[in-house]
Design a protein that fits this description.
Helices cover 23% and strands 27% of the residues. The longest helix has 21 residues. The chain is globular and about 50 Å long. It has a four-stranded antiparallel β-sheet, covered by helices on one side. Helix 2 runs parallel beside helix 3. The chain is α+β, with helices and mostly antiparallel strands. It folds into two domains: 40 residues, no CATH class; 104 residues, no CATH class.
Length: 145
């Protein structure tokens, strides 16, 4: 897990919050000229999420999946706002849905994996999925500002 600033796109170690709590708050970017927020990002999705944010997509959170869960899934959740309310092109195998979390409605794209996969096969599929999502994010059109 890494921390990605949603403004300057700098990457920080995941233990940054505990080591650097003296900075302007645990979720604010420590860069002095930045007012961005730090977003936790799985390392398999780091390049993809960075590309999405750079193109103006309002990423809320994500998960690339876990090999220890019997019913693993990958997802990216987006804030819905005036500039963004839908995705018409999604990564292969993903479905989209509205997702309510802590009183906020998000657009969530997700992909489920077969629950009877062995760890090695699931790990392989998670890696292949991360590459597919990376290609999708790099080829996705930037949002109009």
């Amino acid at each position: 897990m890494k921390l990605l600033c949603t403004e300057c796109l700098n990457i920080f170690e995941s233990d940054f919050r505990t080591k650097r709590s003296q900075y302007r708050g645990s979720s604010e970017c420590p860069s002095t000229k930045c007012s961005g927020i730090l977003l936790e990002v799985d390392e398999l999705y780091l390049v993809s999420i960075k590309a999405l944010i750079a193109k103006g997509y309002p990423v809320a959170d994500c998960c690339s999946g876990h090999i220890w869960q019997k019913e693993s899934h990958s997802y990216i959740r987006f804030y819905i706002d005036e500039g963004f309310n839908d995705l018409f092109i999604m990564p292969e195998g993903y479905v989209k849905q509205l997702d309510m979390h802590k009183g906020v409605t998000y657009l969530r794209i997700s992909k489920k994996y077969h629950k009877n996969l062995k760890e090695m096969e699931l790990q392989k599929q998670l890696f292949e999925n991360a590459l597919s999502v990376q290609d999708w994010a790099k080829n996705l059109k930037a949002l109009d500002s």
